[in-house]
Protein backbone atom coordinates (compact mmCIF):
# COMPACT_ATOMS: atom_id res chain seq x y z
CA UNK A 1 0.00 0.00 0.00
CA UNK A 2 3.03 2.26 -0.25
CA UNK A 3 1.55 3.89 -3.31
CA UNK A 4 -1.11 5.62 -1.24
CA UNK A 5 1.42 7.42 0.96
CA UNK A 6 3.77 10.04 -0.36
CA UNK A 7 7.21 8.58 0.02
CA UNK A 8 10.27 10.49 -1.03
CA UNK A 9 11.97 7.83 -3.08
CA UNK A 10 15.30 9.60 -3.30
CA UNK A 11 15.78 12.94 -1.55
CA UNK A 12 18.17 15.20 -3.32
CA UNK A 13 18.91 17.06 -0.11
CA UNK A 14 19.59 15.51 3.26
CA UNK A 15 16.43 14.54 5.13
CA UNK A 16 15.11 17.41 7.15
CA UNK A 17 14.50 16.17 10.70
CA UNK A 18 11.13 17.81 11.12
CA UNK A 19 9.86 16.13 8.00
CA UNK A 20 9.98 12.86 9.85
CA UNK A 21 8.19 14.24 12.87
CA UNK A 22 4.98 14.99 10.93
CA UNK A 23 3.97 11.92 8.97
CA UNK A 24 2.35 12.67 5.62
CA UNK A 25 -1.40 12.28 5.72
CA UNK A 26 -2.93 9.69 3.40
CA UNK A 27 -4.43 10.84 0.15
CA UNK A 28 -8.13 11.57 -0.06
CA UNK A 29 -10.66 9.28 -1.68
CA UNK A 30 -10.40 9.70 -5.46
CA UNK A 31 -14.15 9.47 -6.09
CA UNK A 32 -15.01 12.16 -3.60
CA UNK A 33 -12.15 14.36 -4.74
CA UNK A 34 -13.27 13.81 -8.32
CA UNK A 35 -16.77 14.87 -7.36
CA UNK A 36 -15.43 18.08 -5.84
CA UNK A 37 -13.29 18.65 -8.93
CA UNK A 38 -16.42 18.25 -11.04
CA UNK A 39 -18.10 20.94 -8.96
CA UNK A 40 -15.08 23.20 -9.50
CA UNK A 41 -15.34 22.62 -13.22
CA UNK A 42 -19.04 23.36 -13.08
CA UNK A 43 -18.32 26.55 -11.14
CA UNK A 44 -16.00 27.63 -13.94
CA UNK A 45 -18.77 27.09 -16.49
CA UNK A 46 -21.24 29.03 -14.37
CA UNK A 47 -18.94 31.88 -13.47
CA UNK A 48 -16.97 32.50 -16.65
CA UNK A 49 -18.46 30.26 -19.32
CA UNK A 50 -15.29 28.24 -19.83
CA UNK A 51 -13.68 25.17 -18.35
CA UNK A 52 -10.32 24.34 -16.84
CA UNK A 53 -7.08 24.23 -18.79
CA UNK A 54 -3.32 24.14 -18.62
CA UNK A 55 -1.90 24.07 -22.11
CA UNK A 56 -3.13 27.55 -22.94
CA UNK A 57 -1.12 28.99 -20.08
CA UNK A 58 2.05 27.41 -21.45
CA UNK A 59 1.17 28.70 -24.92
CA UNK A 60 0.60 32.25 -23.69
CA UNK A 61 3.90 32.26 -21.86
CA UNK A 62 5.60 30.85 -24.96
CA UNK A 63 4.07 33.56 -27.13
CA UNK A 64 5.21 36.26 -24.71
CA UNK A 65 8.69 34.77 -24.63
CA UNK A 66 8.92 34.73 -28.42
CA UNK A 67 7.65 38.30 -28.52
CA UNK A 68 10.31 39.39 -26.06
CA UNK A 69 13.02 37.96 -28.26
CA UNK A 70 11.62 38.95 -31.64
CA UNK A 71 8.40 40.91 -31.94
CA UNK A 72 8.42 40.37 -35.68
CA UNK A 73 8.46 36.59 -35.34
CA UNK A 74 5.67 36.63 -32.82
CA UNK A 75 3.38 38.77 -34.98
CA UNK A 76 4.14 36.78 -38.11
CA UNK A 77 3.20 33.45 -36.57
CA UNK A 78 -0.56 33.01 -36.27
CA UNK A 79 -0.35 30.74 -33.22
CA UNK A 80 1.77 33.16 -31.20
CA UNK A 81 0.08 36.30 -32.51
CA UNK A 82 -3.26 35.04 -31.28
CA UNK A 83 -1.88 34.46 -27.82
CA UNK A 84 -0.07 37.71 -27.25
CA UNK A 85 -1.33 39.65 -24.27
CA UNK A 86 -0.64 43.33 -24.83
CA UNK A 87 -2.18 44.14 -21.44
CA UNK A 88 0.26 41.85 -19.69
CA UNK A 89 0.49 38.11 -19.16
CA UNK A 90 -1.48 38.30 -15.91
CA UNK A 91 -4.59 39.34 -17.85
CA UNK A 92 -4.70 35.92 -19.43
CA UNK A 93 -7.32 33.78 -17.70
CA UNK A 94 -5.45 30.51 -17.96
CA UNK A 95 -2.20 31.98 -16.67
CA UNK A 96 -3.95 33.25 -13.54
CA UNK A 97 -5.72 29.91 -13.20
CA UNK A 98 -2.45 27.98 -13.38
CA UNK A 99 -0.97 30.30 -10.77
CA UNK A 100 -3.91 29.23 -8.62
CA UNK A 101 -3.13 25.58 -9.34
CA UNK A 102 0.37 26.14 -8.00
CA UNK A 103 -0.92 27.87 -4.92
CA UNK A 104 -3.64 25.30 -4.27
CA UNK A 105 -1.34 22.37 -4.80
CA UNK A 106 1.23 23.86 -2.48
CA UNK A 107 -1.28 24.72 0.21
CA UNK A 108 -2.88 21.30 0.12
CA UNK A 109 0.48 19.57 0.40
CA UNK A 110 1.64 21.91 3.16
CA UNK A 111 -1.46 21.18 5.23
CA UNK A 112 -1.00 17.45 4.75
CA UNK A 113 2.75 17.47 5.45
CA UNK A 114 3.45 16.29 1.94
CA UNK A 115 5.97 18.92 0.95
CA UNK A 116 9.46 17.64 0.25
CA UNK A 117 12.03 18.27 -2.39
CA UNK A 118 12.44 15.00 -4.20
CA UNK A 119 12.68 13.32 -7.54
CA UNK A 120 9.98 10.73 -7.91
CA UNK A 121 11.26 7.76 -9.82
CA UNK A 122 11.23 4.02 -9.99
CA UNK A 123 13.99 2.24 -8.09
CA UNK A 124 15.66 1.09 -11.26
CA UNK A 125 16.01 4.57 -12.73
CA UNK A 126 18.71 7.08 -11.86
CA UNK A 127 17.90 10.71 -11.11
CA UNK A 128 19.34 12.03 -14.36
CA UNK A 129 17.55 9.41 -16.38
CA UNK A 130 14.27 10.18 -14.66
CA UNK A 131 14.63 13.93 -15.19
CA UNK A 132 15.56 13.38 -18.83
CA UNK A 133 12.47 11.24 -19.39
CA UNK A 134 10.33 13.76 -17.56
CA UNK A 135 11.55 16.57 -19.76
CA UNK A 136 11.34 14.47 -22.91
CA UNK A 137 7.84 13.38 -22.04
CA UNK A 138 6.95 17.01 -21.46
CA UNK A 139 8.18 17.96 -24.92
CA UNK A 140 6.11 15.24 -26.58
CA UNK A 141 3.06 16.25 -24.55
CA UNK A 142 3.61 19.82 -25.68
CA UNK A 143 3.54 18.77 -29.32
CA UNK A 144 0.43 16.67 -28.85
CA UNK A 145 -1.35 19.33 -26.84
CA UNK A 146 -0.84 22.02 -29.47
CA UNK A 147 -2.17 19.75 -32.21
CA UNK A 148 -5.12 18.70 -30.09
CA UNK A 149 -5.86 22.20 -28.79
CA UNK A 150 -5.49 21.11 -25.19
CA UNK A 151 -4.48 18.46 -22.71
CA UNK A 152 -6.12 16.30 -20.07
CA UNK A 153 -7.39 19.36 -18.24
CA UNK A 154 -8.80 21.25 -21.17
CA UNK A 155 -9.78 18.49 -23.53
CA UNK A 156 -10.39 15.39 -21.46
CA UNK A 157 -11.98 17.03 -18.41
CA UNK A 158 -13.60 20.12 -19.90
CA UNK A 159 -14.33 18.87 -23.38
CA UNK A 160 -15.33 15.54 -21.94
CA UNK A 161 -17.96 17.11 -19.72
CA UNK A 162 -19.23 19.14 -22.68
CA UNK A 163 -19.45 15.94 -24.75
CA UNK A 164 -17.28 17.41 -27.49
CA UNK A 165 -16.46 14.77 -30.08
CA UNK A 166 -12.88 15.95 -30.59
CA UNK A 167 -12.27 15.89 -26.85
CA UNK A 168 -13.48 12.33 -26.49
CA UNK A 169 -11.32 11.37 -29.45
CA UNK A 170 -8.41 13.00 -27.69
CA UNK A 171 -9.17 11.02 -24.53
CA UNK A 172 -9.26 7.71 -26.34
CA UNK A 173 -6.14 8.50 -28.31
CA UNK A 174 -4.27 9.67 -25.25
CA UNK A 175 -5.13 6.82 -22.94
CA UNK A 176 -4.80 4.22 -25.66
CA UNK A 177 -1.34 5.40 -26.57
CA UNK A 178 -0.37 5.92 -22.93
CA UNK A 179 -1.27 2.37 -21.96
CA UNK A 180 0.72 1.00 -24.86
CA UNK A 181 3.72 3.22 -24.18
CA UNK A 182 3.60 2.58 -20.44
CA UNK A 183 3.52 -1.14 -21.00
CA UNK A 184 6.55 -0.89 -23.25
CA UNK A 185 8.34 1.15 -20.58
CA UNK A 186 7.09 -0.83 -17.59
CA UNK A 187 10.54 -1.53 -16.24
CA UNK A 188 11.04 2.18 -15.57
CA UNK A 189 8.76 2.27 -12.52
CA UNK A 190 9.65 -1.12 -11.09
CA UNK B 1 -15.90 3.86 11.03
CA UNK B 2 -14.43 6.61 8.87
CA UNK B 3 -14.32 4.38 5.84
CA UNK B 4 -17.93 3.28 6.36
CA UNK B 5 -19.05 6.89 6.12
CA UNK B 6 -16.99 7.31 3.00
CA UNK B 7 -18.67 4.35 1.42
CA UNK B 8 -22.09 5.74 2.34
CA UNK B 9 -21.29 9.10 0.78
CA UNK B 10 -20.06 7.40 -2.34
CA UNK B 11 -23.12 5.23 -2.60
CA UNK B 12 -25.32 8.29 -2.24
CA UNK B 13 -23.41 10.14 -4.93
CA UNK B 14 -23.51 7.18 -7.27
CA UNK B 15 -27.24 6.81 -6.67
CA UNK B 16 -27.78 10.49 -7.31
CA UNK B 17 -25.78 10.30 -10.53
CA UNK B 18 -27.78 7.31 -11.71
CA UNK B 19 -31.10 8.94 -10.88
CA UNK B 20 -30.18 12.28 -12.45
CA UNK B 21 -28.99 10.64 -15.64
CA UNK B 22 -32.09 8.51 -15.97
CA UNK B 23 -34.20 11.62 -15.52
CA UNK B 24 -32.01 13.43 -18.03
CA UNK B 25 -32.60 10.74 -20.62
CA UNK B 26 -36.33 10.83 -20.00
CA UNK B 27 -36.38 14.61 -20.17
CA UNK B 28 -34.42 14.64 -23.43
CA UNK B 29 -36.58 12.04 -25.09
CA UNK B 30 -39.76 13.87 -24.21
CA UNK B 31 -38.39 17.20 -25.44
CA UNK B 32 -36.88 15.77 -28.62
CA UNK B 33 -40.29 14.40 -29.48
CA UNK B 34 -41.83 17.80 -29.00
CA UNK B 35 -39.12 19.45 -31.06
CA UNK B 36 -39.69 17.40 -34.14
CA UNK B 37 -43.44 17.64 -33.81
CA UNK B 38 -44.30 20.10 -36.52
CA UNK B 39 -45.76 23.15 -34.84
CA UNK B 40 -46.87 24.41 -38.18
CA UNK B 41 -47.56 21.95 -40.93
CA UNK B 42 -45.29 22.45 -43.91
CA UNK B 43 -46.92 24.87 -46.26
CA UNK B 44 -47.95 23.57 -49.65
CA UNK B 45 -46.62 25.59 -52.52
CA UNK B 46 -49.67 27.80 -52.87
CA UNK B 47 -49.66 30.93 -55.06
CA UNK B 48 -49.57 33.17 -51.99
CA UNK B 49 -46.67 31.19 -50.57
CA UNK B 50 -44.81 31.59 -53.84
CA UNK B 51 -45.25 35.35 -53.90
CA UNK B 52 -44.16 35.55 -50.27
CA UNK B 53 -40.98 33.75 -51.20
CA UNK B 54 -40.53 36.00 -54.21
CA UNK B 55 -40.77 39.03 -51.94
CA UNK B 56 -38.01 37.64 -49.72
CA UNK B 57 -35.80 37.11 -52.71
CA UNK B 58 -36.37 40.64 -53.85
CA UNK B 59 -35.67 42.05 -50.42
CA UNK B 60 -32.45 40.07 -50.36
CA UNK B 61 -33.47 38.38 -47.09
CA UNK B 62 -32.51 35.09 -48.63
CA UNK B 63 -28.72 35.14 -48.57
CA UNK B 64 -25.65 35.93 -46.53
CA UNK B 65 -22.27 37.13 -47.66
CA UNK B 66 -19.13 35.08 -47.15
CA UNK B 67 -17.86 37.42 -44.47
CA UNK B 68 -21.19 37.29 -42.61
CA UNK B 69 -21.13 33.51 -42.70
CA UNK B 70 -17.53 33.49 -41.52
CA UNK B 71 -18.48 35.66 -38.56
CA UNK B 72 -21.44 33.46 -37.70
CA UNK B 73 -19.25 30.38 -37.70
CA UNK B 74 -16.57 32.06 -35.67
CA UNK B 75 -18.99 33.44 -33.12
CA UNK B 76 -20.54 30.01 -32.79
CA UNK B 77 -24.00 31.27 -33.67
CA UNK B 78 -26.45 28.98 -31.86
CA UNK B 79 -28.28 26.54 -34.08
CA UNK B 80 -26.14 27.27 -37.11
CA UNK B 81 -25.83 24.51 -39.68
CA UNK B 82 -23.76 25.05 -42.79
CA UNK B 83 -24.82 22.73 -45.61
CA UNK B 84 -22.68 21.95 -48.63
CA UNK B 85 -24.84 20.82 -51.56
CA UNK B 86 -22.00 19.76 -53.86
CA UNK B 87 -20.81 16.26 -54.68
CA UNK B 88 -18.81 14.13 -52.28
CA UNK B 89 -15.41 14.43 -54.04
CA UNK B 90 -15.81 18.20 -54.13
CA UNK B 91 -16.71 18.20 -50.45
CA UNK B 92 -13.75 16.05 -49.54
CA UNK B 93 -11.37 18.27 -51.49
CA UNK B 94 -12.37 21.33 -49.51
CA UNK B 95 -15.36 22.50 -47.58
CA UNK B 96 -16.12 25.42 -45.34
CA UNK B 97 -15.10 24.50 -41.78
CA UNK B 98 -18.06 23.05 -39.84
CA UNK B 99 -20.04 22.40 -43.04
CA UNK B 100 -21.97 19.16 -43.48
CA UNK B 101 -22.57 17.65 -46.86
CA UNK B 102 -26.21 17.49 -47.90
CA UNK B 103 -27.03 17.10 -51.59
CA UNK B 104 -30.14 18.76 -52.99
CA UNK B 105 -31.99 15.46 -53.23
CA UNK B 106 -31.57 14.93 -49.50
CA UNK B 107 -32.80 18.41 -48.68
CA UNK B 108 -36.38 17.32 -49.07
CA UNK B 109 -35.93 14.81 -46.24
CA UNK B 110 -34.61 17.45 -43.87
CA UNK B 111 -37.13 18.12 -41.13
CA UNK B 112 -37.51 21.68 -39.85
CA UNK B 113 -36.12 22.07 -36.36
CA UNK B 114 -36.76 24.91 -33.96
CA UNK B 115 -33.90 27.30 -33.44
CA UNK B 116 -31.89 26.13 -36.41
CA UNK B 117 -30.35 28.52 -38.90
CA UNK B 118 -29.44 26.81 -42.14
CA UNK B 119 -26.94 28.23 -44.61
CA UNK B 120 -26.58 26.45 -47.93
CA UNK B 121 -23.63 26.88 -50.22
CA UNK B 122 -22.41 25.53 -53.52
CA UNK B 123 -19.60 26.34 -55.92
CA UNK B 124 -21.01 29.57 -57.29
CA UNK B 125 -24.28 29.87 -55.44
CA UNK B 126 -26.82 28.80 -58.04
CA UNK B 127 -27.54 25.34 -56.66
CA UNK B 128 -27.61 26.66 -53.16
CA UNK B 129 -30.11 29.32 -54.15
CA UNK B 130 -32.32 26.64 -55.68
CA UNK B 131 -31.98 24.62 -52.47
CA UNK B 132 -33.10 27.71 -50.57
CA UNK B 133 -36.37 27.73 -52.46
CA UNK B 134 -36.90 24.02 -51.78
CA UNK B 135 -36.30 24.35 -48.05
CA UNK B 136 -38.40 27.45 -47.61
CA UNK B 137 -41.22 25.83 -49.52
CA UNK B 138 -41.12 22.78 -47.28
CA UNK B 139 -41.52 24.81 -44.12
CA UNK B 140 -38.04 25.72 -42.92
CA UNK B 141 -37.95 29.18 -41.44
CA UNK B 142 -34.39 30.43 -41.07
CA UNK B 143 -32.68 29.47 -44.28
CA UNK B 144 -30.07 31.39 -46.22
CA UNK B 145 -27.69 30.63 -49.02
CA UNK B 146 -24.16 31.86 -49.44
CA UNK B 147 -24.18 34.50 -52.11
CA UNK B 148 -21.35 33.90 -54.53
CA UNK B 149 -20.81 30.42 -53.10
CA UNK B 150 -17.44 28.93 -52.39
CA UNK B 151 -15.85 31.28 -54.91
CA UNK B 152 -16.81 34.26 -52.78
CA UNK B 153 -15.67 32.40 -49.66
CA UNK B 154 -12.24 31.97 -51.19
CA UNK B 155 -12.11 35.55 -52.36
CA UNK B 156 -13.49 37.27 -49.28
CA UNK B 157 -12.46 35.03 -46.43
CA UNK B 158 -9.61 32.74 -47.38
CA UNK B 159 -7.56 35.30 -49.29
CA UNK B 160 -9.24 38.65 -48.82
CA UNK B 161 -7.76 41.84 -50.13
CA UNK B 162 -7.25 43.86 -46.98
CA UNK B 163 -9.15 47.13 -46.96
CA UNK B 164 -7.29 50.24 -45.92
CA UNK B 165 -9.82 51.27 -43.31
CA UNK B 166 -10.54 50.38 -39.71
CA UNK B 167 -11.99 46.99 -40.62
CA UNK B 168 -8.58 45.81 -41.85
CA UNK B 169 -7.61 44.07 -38.64
CA UNK B 170 -10.97 42.35 -38.28
CA UNK B 171 -10.88 41.06 -41.83
CA UNK B 172 -7.35 39.79 -41.39
CA UNK B 173 -8.15 38.10 -38.10
CA UNK B 174 -11.24 36.46 -39.55
CA UNK B 175 -9.26 35.15 -42.47
CA UNK B 176 -6.52 33.73 -40.30
CA UNK B 177 -9.07 32.03 -38.05
CA UNK B 178 -10.10 29.90 -41.01
CA UNK B 179 -6.52 29.25 -42.09
CA UNK B 180 -6.64 31.81 -44.86
CA UNK B 181 -3.96 34.17 -46.05
CA UNK B 182 -4.94 37.81 -46.37
CA UNK B 183 -3.59 39.69 -49.37
CA UNK B 184 -2.59 43.29 -49.36
CA UNK B 185 -2.69 43.62 -53.12
CA UNK B 186 0.57 44.83 -54.57
CA UNK B 187 1.76 46.07 -51.19
CA UNK B 188 3.55 43.44 -49.09
CA UNK B 189 1.83 42.60 -45.82
CA UNK B 190 3.08 44.70 -42.94
CA UNK B 191 5.46 42.55 -40.93
CA UNK B 192 4.45 44.05 -37.67
CA UNK B 193 1.22 45.69 -36.75
CA UNK B 194 0.48 46.18 -33.11
CA UNK B 195 -3.15 46.96 -33.73
CA UNK B 196 -3.72 43.81 -35.76
CA UNK B 197 -2.19 41.63 -33.07
CA UNK B 198 -4.28 43.33 -30.42
CA UNK B 199 -7.42 42.83 -32.43
CA UNK B 200 -6.61 39.18 -32.95
CA UNK B 201 -5.78 38.58 -29.31
CA UNK B 202 -8.94 40.25 -28.15
CA UNK B 203 -11.28 38.14 -30.22
CA UNK B 204 -9.51 34.90 -29.45
CA UNK B 205 -11.82 32.15 -28.34
CA UNK B 206 -11.85 31.02 -24.74
CA UNK B 207 -9.68 28.01 -25.38
CA UNK B 208 -7.74 25.78 -23.08
CA UNK C 1 -30.84 32.58 -17.32
CA UNK C 2 -28.18 34.09 -15.18
CA UNK C 3 -25.15 32.02 -16.09
CA UNK C 4 -22.44 32.17 -17.29
CA UNK C 5 -22.12 35.21 -15.06
CA UNK C 6 -19.63 36.89 -17.36
CA UNK C 7 -22.06 36.66 -20.25
CA UNK C 8 -24.89 38.19 -18.28
CA UNK C 9 -22.99 41.12 -16.87
CA UNK C 10 -22.78 39.68 -13.36
CA UNK C 11 -19.03 39.33 -13.49
CA UNK C 12 -16.60 41.70 -15.17
CA UNK C 13 -13.13 41.02 -16.58
CA UNK C 14 -11.49 41.63 -13.22
CA UNK C 15 -13.96 39.34 -11.48
CA UNK C 16 -13.23 36.70 -14.10
CA UNK C 17 -9.55 36.79 -13.19
CA UNK C 18 -10.31 36.57 -9.48
CA UNK C 19 -12.47 33.58 -10.30
CA UNK C 20 -9.60 32.14 -12.34
CA UNK C 21 -7.32 32.22 -9.32
CA UNK C 22 -9.91 30.78 -6.96
CA UNK C 23 -10.84 28.04 -9.39
CA UNK C 24 -7.17 27.31 -9.94
CA UNK C 25 -6.58 26.95 -6.21
CA UNK C 26 -9.44 24.50 -5.92
CA UNK C 27 -8.24 22.62 -8.99
CA UNK C 28 -4.69 22.35 -7.67
CA UNK C 29 -5.89 21.33 -4.23
CA UNK C 30 -8.10 18.57 -5.64
CA UNK C 31 -5.25 17.22 -7.73
CA UNK C 32 -2.84 17.25 -4.81
CA UNK C 33 -5.28 15.76 -2.33
CA UNK C 34 -6.03 12.85 -4.58
CA UNK C 35 -2.33 12.19 -5.03
CA UNK C 36 -2.24 13.04 -8.71
CA UNK C 37 0.69 15.37 -8.08
CA UNK C 38 2.82 12.27 -7.66
CA UNK C 39 4.15 10.59 -10.78
CA UNK C 40 4.48 7.30 -8.91
CA UNK C 41 0.80 7.29 -8.08
CA UNK C 42 -0.21 8.43 -11.54
CA UNK C 43 1.72 5.60 -13.16
CA UNK C 44 -0.29 3.15 -11.11
CA UNK C 45 -3.05 3.85 -13.60
CA UNK C 46 -1.06 2.14 -16.30
CA UNK C 47 -0.14 -1.05 -14.52
CA UNK C 48 -3.71 -1.06 -13.23
CA UNK C 49 -2.66 -1.17 -9.57
CA UNK C 50 -4.00 2.29 -8.81
CA UNK C 51 -6.80 3.66 -10.94
CA UNK C 52 -6.97 7.03 -9.19
CA UNK C 53 -6.58 8.93 -12.46
CA UNK C 54 -9.61 7.22 -13.94
CA UNK C 55 -11.67 7.60 -10.77
CA UNK C 56 -10.90 11.29 -10.32
CA UNK C 57 -11.29 12.17 -13.96
CA UNK C 58 -14.55 10.40 -14.58
CA UNK C 59 -16.12 11.38 -11.29
CA UNK C 60 -15.39 14.95 -12.30
CA UNK C 61 -16.69 14.52 -15.84
CA UNK C 62 -19.91 12.86 -14.68
CA UNK C 63 -20.51 15.55 -12.06
CA UNK C 64 -19.90 18.46 -14.40
CA UNK C 65 -21.82 16.83 -17.24
CA UNK C 66 -24.92 16.28 -15.10
CA UNK C 67 -24.53 19.74 -13.61
CA UNK C 68 -24.45 21.33 -17.07
CA UNK C 69 -27.50 19.45 -18.23
CA UNK C 70 -29.66 20.23 -15.22
CA UNK C 71 -28.61 23.85 -14.78
CA UNK C 72 -29.51 24.30 -18.42
CA UNK C 73 -32.85 22.52 -18.13
CA UNK C 74 -33.72 24.56 -15.05
CA UNK C 75 -33.17 27.68 -17.13
CA UNK C 76 -30.24 28.88 -15.04
CA UNK C 77 -27.35 28.33 -17.41
CA UNK C 78 -27.25 29.16 -21.12
CA UNK C 79 -25.07 26.37 -22.45
CA UNK C 80 -24.81 28.08 -25.83
CA UNK C 81 -22.73 30.76 -24.14
CA UNK C 82 -20.29 28.27 -22.66
CA UNK C 83 -17.16 27.84 -24.73
CA UNK C 84 -17.24 24.54 -26.59
CA UNK C 85 -13.86 23.48 -28.00
CA UNK C 86 -13.79 23.01 -31.76
CA UNK C 87 -13.56 19.49 -33.07
CA UNK C 88 -10.73 18.61 -35.43
CA UNK C 89 -10.96 14.86 -35.82
CA UNK C 90 -7.50 13.99 -37.08
CA UNK C 91 -5.28 16.46 -35.20
CA UNK C 92 -7.05 15.75 -31.93
CA UNK C 93 -6.79 11.98 -32.30
CA UNK C 94 -3.18 12.19 -33.42
CA UNK C 95 -2.33 14.87 -30.89
CA UNK C 96 -4.00 12.77 -28.26
CA UNK C 97 -1.89 9.75 -29.12
CA UNK C 98 1.29 11.82 -29.02
CA UNK C 99 0.18 13.32 -25.74
CA UNK C 100 -0.42 9.86 -24.34
CA UNK C 101 3.08 8.73 -25.23
CA UNK C 102 4.53 11.81 -23.57
CA UNK C 103 2.32 11.24 -20.56
CA UNK C 104 3.57 7.69 -20.11
CA UNK C 105 7.14 8.86 -20.49
CA UNK C 106 6.82 11.76 -18.07
CA UNK C 107 4.44 10.26 -15.55
CA UNK C 108 2.70 13.61 -15.21
CA UNK C 109 0.39 15.70 -17.36
CA UNK C 110 0.70 19.50 -17.73
CA UNK C 111 -1.73 20.30 -14.92
CA UNK C 112 -0.38 17.73 -12.48
CA UNK C 113 3.20 18.71 -13.32
CA UNK C 114 2.44 22.15 -11.91
CA UNK C 115 1.11 20.57 -8.72
CA UNK C 116 4.14 18.30 -8.54
CA UNK C 117 6.51 21.23 -9.00
CA UNK C 118 4.67 23.24 -6.38
CA UNK C 119 5.07 20.44 -3.86
CA UNK C 120 8.80 20.07 -4.34
CA UNK C 121 9.06 17.42 -7.00
CA UNK C 122 11.91 18.27 -9.34
CA UNK C 123 10.63 15.86 -11.95
CA UNK C 124 7.51 18.04 -12.06
CA UNK C 125 9.66 21.01 -12.91
CA UNK C 126 11.35 18.99 -15.65
CA UNK C 127 7.99 18.09 -17.18
CA UNK C 128 6.93 21.73 -17.10
CA UNK C 129 10.09 22.84 -18.87
CA UNK C 130 9.71 20.11 -21.46
CA UNK C 131 6.08 21.06 -21.99
CA UNK C 132 7.04 24.68 -22.50
CA UNK C 133 9.69 23.70 -25.05
CA UNK C 134 7.31 21.38 -26.89
CA UNK C 135 4.57 24.00 -27.12
CA UNK C 136 7.06 26.64 -28.24
CA UNK C 137 8.57 24.43 -30.93
CA UNK C 138 5.24 23.23 -32.24
CA UNK C 139 3.82 26.75 -32.27
CA UNK C 140 6.82 27.92 -34.22
CA UNK C 141 6.47 25.04 -36.67
CA UNK C 142 2.73 25.47 -37.09
CA UNK C 143 2.90 27.31 -40.43
CA UNK C 144 4.38 24.13 -41.88
CA UNK C 145 1.82 21.96 -40.10
CA UNK C 146 -1.18 23.98 -41.25
CA UNK C 147 -2.72 21.23 -43.35
CA UNK C 148 -2.68 18.74 -40.52
CA UNK C 149 -3.58 21.33 -37.88
CA UNK C 150 -6.71 22.45 -39.73
CA UNK C 151 -7.68 19.09 -41.21
CA UNK C 152 -11.07 17.46 -40.60
CA UNK C 153 -12.56 20.54 -38.96
CA UNK C 154 -16.06 19.93 -37.68
CA UNK C 155 -16.68 23.07 -35.66
CA UNK C 156 -18.50 22.72 -32.37
CA UNK C 157 -19.59 19.10 -32.61
CA UNK C 158 -21.02 17.20 -29.68
CA UNK C 159 -21.65 13.50 -29.26
CA UNK C 160 -25.45 13.88 -29.19
CA UNK C 161 -25.36 15.79 -32.46
CA UNK C 162 -22.94 13.31 -34.05
CA UNK C 163 -24.91 10.26 -32.99
CA UNK C 164 -28.27 11.87 -33.55
CA UNK C 165 -29.23 10.90 -30.01
CA UNK C 166 -30.91 13.09 -27.41
CA UNK C 167 -28.42 14.65 -25.02
CA UNK C 168 -29.87 13.02 -21.92
CA UNK C 169 -29.53 9.59 -23.47
CA UNK C 170 -25.86 10.14 -24.22
CA UNK C 171 -25.42 11.31 -20.63
CA UNK C 172 -27.16 8.20 -19.35
CA UNK C 173 -24.84 5.99 -21.37
CA UNK C 174 -21.72 7.80 -20.17
CA UNK C 175 -22.83 7.72 -16.53
CA UNK C 176 -23.85 4.08 -16.86
CA UNK C 177 -20.50 3.06 -18.27
CA UNK C 178 -18.64 5.13 -15.67
CA UNK C 179 -20.54 3.74 -12.69
CA UNK C 180 -20.18 0.20 -13.98
CA UNK C 181 -16.47 0.71 -14.47
CA UNK C 182 -16.18 2.17 -10.97
CA UNK C 183 -17.74 -1.02 -9.68
CA UNK C 184 -14.95 -3.04 -11.20
CA UNK C 185 -11.97 -0.91 -10.19
CA UNK C 186 -11.41 -2.57 -6.83
CA UNK C 187 -11.30 -5.99 -8.45
CA UNK C 188 -8.97 -4.83 -11.21
CA UNK C 189 -6.60 -3.16 -8.76
CA UNK C 190 -6.48 -6.25 -6.56
CA UNK C 191 -5.83 -8.53 -9.52
CA UNK C 192 -3.05 -6.27 -10.83
CA UNK C 193 -1.42 -5.93 -7.42
CA UNK C 194 -1.36 -9.71 -7.03
CA UNK C 195 0.08 -10.37 -10.45
CA UNK C 196 2.77 -7.72 -10.05
CA UNK C 197 3.77 -9.31 -6.78
CA UNK C 198 4.07 -12.76 -8.33
CA UNK C 199 5.97 -11.46 -11.33
CA UNK C 200 8.41 -9.73 -8.96
CA UNK C 201 9.06 -13.11 -7.40
CA UNK C 202 9.49 -14.65 -10.79
CA UNK C 203 12.00 -12.05 -11.96
Structural class label of chain A:
mainly alpha
Distance between the termini of chain C: 62 Å
**Mean pLDDT over the full residue set of chain A:** 88
> What number of structural domains do the residues of chain C give?
1
Write a structural description.
- The complex is a heterotrimer of chains A (190), B (208) and C (203).
- Chain A is mostly helical.
- Chain A is 64% helix and 0% strand.
- Chain B has 208 residues and is an alpha/beta fold.
- In chain B, helix 3 crosses helix 8 and helix 8 crosses helix 9.
- The longest helix of chain B is centred in the first third of the chain and has 35 residues.
- Chain B is extended and about 70 Å long.
- Chain C contains nine helices and two strands, in the order αααβααααβαα.
- Chains B and C meet through helix 1 of B and helix 3, strand 2 and helix 9 of C.
Please provide a brief summary of the model.
With 190 residues, chain A is mainly α.
Topology, element by element:
The complex is a heterotrimer of chains A (190), B (208) and C (203).
Chain A: H1 17-21, H2 30-48, H3 55-69, H4 71-76, H5 78-82, H6 93-111, H7 127-148, H8 152-161, H9 165-184
Helix pairs in contact in A: 3-6, 8-9
Chain B: H1 2-36, H2 47-58, E1 63-64, H3 66-74, E2 80-84, H4 88-93, E3 99-101, H5 104-107, E4 117-121, H6 126-137, E5 143-146, H7 149-158, H8 168-177, H9 194-202
Parallel strand pairs in B: 1-5, 2-3, 2-4, 4-5
Helix pairs in contact in B: 3-8, 8-9
Chain C: H1 13-33, H2 39-43, H3 52-73, E1 87-88, H4 89-106, H5 110-118, H6 122-141, H7 146-149, E2 153-155, H8 159-163, H9 167-202
Antiparallel strand pairs in C: 1-2
Looking at this protein, list some descriptive labels:
heterotrimer, B: 208 residues, Oxidized Rhodanese, domain 1, 2 domains, extended, C: 203 residues, mainly alpha, two-stranded antiparallel sheet, 69% helix
Amino acid sequence: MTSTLAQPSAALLRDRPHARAAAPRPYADPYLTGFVLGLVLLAAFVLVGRGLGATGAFASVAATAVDAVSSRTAQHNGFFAERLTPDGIWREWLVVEIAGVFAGGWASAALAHRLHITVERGASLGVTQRLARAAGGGVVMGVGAVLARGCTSGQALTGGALLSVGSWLFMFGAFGAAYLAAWLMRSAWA
Amino acid sequence: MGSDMLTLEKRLLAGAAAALSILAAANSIVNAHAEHYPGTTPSAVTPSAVSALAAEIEHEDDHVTAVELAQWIRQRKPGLRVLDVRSDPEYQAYHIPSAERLPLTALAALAPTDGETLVLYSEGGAHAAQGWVLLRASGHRRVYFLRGGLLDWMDDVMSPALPNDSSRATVAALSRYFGGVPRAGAVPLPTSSATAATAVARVRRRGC
Amino acid sequence: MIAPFTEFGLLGPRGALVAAFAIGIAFGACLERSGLGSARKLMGQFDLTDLAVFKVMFSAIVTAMLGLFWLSRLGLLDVQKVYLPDTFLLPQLLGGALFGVGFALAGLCPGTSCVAAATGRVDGVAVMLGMFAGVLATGAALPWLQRLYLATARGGLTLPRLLGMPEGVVILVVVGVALTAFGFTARIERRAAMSSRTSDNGV
